[in-house]
Amino acid sequence: MKIITDTGCMISQKEANDLGIELLPLQVEVDGHNYRDYLDISSEDFYELTKTKIAHSSLPSVGDVMDIYQRFSEGIHICIARGLSSTYDTAALVAKQMNVNMTLFNSKGLIGTQRYLVLLAQRLSFKHTAAEITQRMDTCLSQCQSFLIAVDFNFLKRTGRLSPLAATLGGMMNIKPIITHVPGMEKLEKFGVGRTWHHALDQIVDKMSKNAVDLKHKVYIVHAFNLEMAQLAAQKVRDRFKDIEIEFLSLSPVFMAMGGPGCVAVQYILRDDAD
């Protein structure tokens, strides 16, 4: 069974090739030029470009989706969260027009949590049916949440992915806005504000404790050229949850276009370690 996904899962083309996963690149547009995530532009080059240019993210090309569906008429296509992207709806339209037996799965998340589901599906694909795999992915999503601290809030406001309430945070000065997303949300919502990085991260870790996060979960710390604050976030998570598994990820150009350089995200998802 072929597993298909997009670069919303922070899997590079090389990693996808090594794992046998088909990867659709999301796209980012800067100054009239369109770039495929990971393939046409690096995070470093994107960072330099956006010092003077405005960037906009977009979904994979329809042609790329059609090409994969022609080569693999059966599989599981795990898409970046519906509502935050039109990727799922575009794939559904292509699948209907081409009449392929493709199981479309809304990951209801992005970055680390989507990555976890894709790697889980790939591991299970050799022994389990599509229905069994999607059921187990849904179980993982039953205990899942993402938090984002933005440095330049204008990046998030331009994407249109913020609720009106969350967007009002953009006008507040000298604070660290905290945005959250849980499975089912179609917009990023306000979680809170922090006076400092320490204060903002403490609020996130407190919320994780209230949600009974423990060793049954995996944590992702994601950043856009802000390793110092990502390491601070990881330390606070370790101080509270001891031996919980943490994975660091660096944002791709598409997600830097959303969250902006310097942003840091903390995510958790329920693990599935069974065969």
Portion of residues in beta strands equals 25-35%
Major sheet attributes: 6 strands, mixed
Number of domains: 2
Total beta-strand segments: 13
What gyration radius follows from the Cα positions, in whole Å?
18 Å
The name of the CATH topology of the largest domain is Rossmann fold
- Using the coordinates above, name the CATH class of the largest domain: Alpha Beta
Q: In DSSP terms, counting alpha (H) and pi (I) runs of 4 or more, how many helices? A: 11
Large-scale geometry = globular
State the end-to-end CA separation. 16 Å
Strand order of the largest sheet: 10-9-8-13-11-12
Q: Helical content, roughly?
A: 25-40%
Order of helices and strands: EHEEEHEHEHEHHEHHEEHEHEHE
Mean pLDDT score, rounded?
89
CATH architecture of the largest domain: 3-Layer(aba) Sandwich
Q: What is the structural class?
A: alpha/beta
Structure description:
With 275 residues, the protein is of the alpha/beta class. Helix 3 crosses helix 4 (87-98), helix 5 (112-124) runs antiparallel to helix 6 (130-141) and helix 9 runs parallel beside helix 10 (227-241). The chain has 2 domains: 2-138, Rossmann fold (3-Layer(aba) Sandwich), CATH 3.40.50; 144-270, Hypothetical Protein Tm841, Chain: A,domain 3 (2-Layer Sandwich), CATH 3.30.1180. It is globular, with a radius of gyration of 18 Å. It has a 6-stranded mixed beta sheet with strand order 10-9-8-13-11-12, sandwiched between helices. The chain has 11 helices and 13 strands. Helix 4 links the parallel strand 6 (74-79) and strand 7.
